[in-house]
Design a protein that fits this description.
Order of helices and strands: HHEHEEHEHEHEEEHEHEHHHHH
Radius of gyration: 33 Å
Shape: elongated
Strand order of the largest sheet: 2-3-8-5-7-6
Strand content: 15-25%
Structural class: alpha+beta
Number of strands: 10
Amino acid sequence: MNFINNFEVALNGIKANKLRSSLTMLGIIIGVAAVIIMISVGQGASKRISDQISSMGSNLLMVSPGAGQGPVRGASGNVNTLTLEDAEAIAGLSMVAGAVPELNTGATIVYENQTWTSQINGTTPGMQVIKDWPVSSGSYFGDDDVQSASLVAVLGQTVVDNLFPPGTDPVGATIRINKLAFTVVGVLSPKGAAMMGQDQDDAVYVPITTVQKRMLGVNNVRTINVQTETQDSMAYVQTSIEELLRERHRITGSKTDDFSVLSLTSVLEAAETATGTMTILLASIAAISLLVGGIGIMNIMLVSVTERTKEIGLRMAVGATESNILNQFLVESVVLCLVGGFTGIITGAAVAWAISKFAGWPTYITLYSILLSAGFSAAIGIFFGYYPAKKAASLDPIEALRFEK
């Protein structure tokens, strides 16, 4: 009996016992669906993190103030250790495409009778280049505005939506921030959530000197965003920045750095490792139901062998070999698992889509997860179907013909 005949016999057996076959395949269906769902959720989370980090800029290093030296010490970022001059010095390093300082503060923004509390980011025109953030209307402020500490502002889309009537172009309008009148010169295109979930569009960008001199009265900067020429040069640039700042800040010997340099690539790799580990863990737990389903397949195949003992004897009597009988029952087991596996794939994909659609959690179904699930289904069919098939092939034809249920 060839493979096609075995396949037809297997399908006929499934059709003849629809309820029993459906219940037998249920463990496989649930297991495969669970694996598809877990992998798609994990892949979706990884892709979301990757997209969020990419939205912050490519080949980006972030220099932040550290614990500091001297009598006043604090947690990272609570001391004034970085300056505009530091940013200018970093910009002159080899393989650095740009160094953009940033200083932020919270403030209430007023336009006519509308108010909105948002983050005011003082920066330079290079921020738009480093973060690849074009304007949807108007333009970005220029170097002259930074030199003169001009009262000009570029708004994020969330700020626009909450301050201005729908359809209004804010460019040219005057808003008040901490009682200072700013002229809106541009609106940034929507960018979405950042790595930690904060809304990047809920911000106002102004010249950094304006924040320093007219709003906070300080000389320091909060962060220096450094873009390298290539991704491969990030490690070299990071080392160069650390050496430069230690020299500029007169940090010698074993003294603690008063700054920290963070690579977003390292953050991405750590996040992907964490989500990958969690995905494997969840998928492994879900795969336990595949094992249970395989045991169910073995059980039903043993029952099938018992029910069809006389049929096996007749086949052997008319010339069927042990390998024919073995292949027949193996094919039946594999067909049960594959039908259950494909049903599980469809079910898992549907549930993953529903999670993305109604729960708002990103899911990402890969060809790898589908092939993995289908492969596991076939492997389970062969593994758990071999013993019943071997038992059927080992029956004595005469004893099989005498068998009575």
